[in-house]
Amino acid sequence: MMKKKPSARENSSPSSSTAREEETEWEMRPGGMLVQKRTAQTDAPTRNLRLRIAYGALRYEICVSSTATFGEVKKVLSGETGLQVDEQRVVYRGRERQNGEYLDACGVKDRSKVVLIQDPSSIERRFIQMRINAKIQNAHRAINNIALQIDQLADQVSAIEKSISNGVNVPEVQITTLIEMLMRQAIKLESITAEGDASAQKNLQGKRVQKCVETLDELKVSNARIKPVVVTTKWETFDHPPSSTTWELFD
């Protein structure tokens, strides 16, 4: 259990809300959130409050329970503003409020004004995350393009394998050229910086290239054992039949 110490400014304030905050006890919820401990003095009938939220030039109005915490208010504001809970700072009556503080215990009433500020450090974190996401997207796009090329080359490998299995000799230059094209794709893959899912996809395509090259090496050996088929044409000759035509002369 934690106890909040009153500040000199709070002791000098005559308001009732400040007086309630001078001696605040805290407790840990099962989810790990530190909240104000409910006492007989802070218990009050539950009612809905309409809060006016000022976020820069934007204005919002949300409805929450009077017994809600400022952390729960931030969750509602996440849906309105797109800011995550840890990116928000909520100010009420000139003080930044912690997630575990209850609205009614801090003197929040219907149509009270709450100021929302984006945490400056979160802006930098979001910018860094945007750059990381852009790199990941570029890596995915590059790997997908290479995967399409590997698909086409793998089809050619299958065609050569089928020809050799049928006893058809394939020109060696065709196999060598296909190996070179696959190795070019492997070099392109190595030049891509990838993390997470993109890294796994990169490794998968690299294994495909390796398997195709190994298959071609084996096919090259099998192809060398096949004697090329030489097609020769034998022409049949015919003797001219003897001429038996008798010509008759007329005067």
UniProtKB/TrEMBL annotation:
It comes from the Eukaryota. Residues 1-41 are annotated as: Disordered. GO terms for cellular component: cytoplasm. It holds the Pfam family BAG. Residues 9-18 have a biased composition (Low complexity). Coiled coil: none annotated. One of its GO terms (biological process) is protein stabilization. Residues 47-117 form the Ubiquitin-like domain. Signal peptide: none annotated. Keywords: Chaperone. One of its GO terms (molecular function) is protein-folding chaperone binding. InterPro entries: BAG_chaperone_regulator (IPR039773), BAG_dom_sf (IPR036533), BAG_domain (IPR003103), Ubiquitin-like_dom (IPR000626), Ubiquitin-like_domsf (IPR029071). This is Ubiquitin-like domain-containing protein.
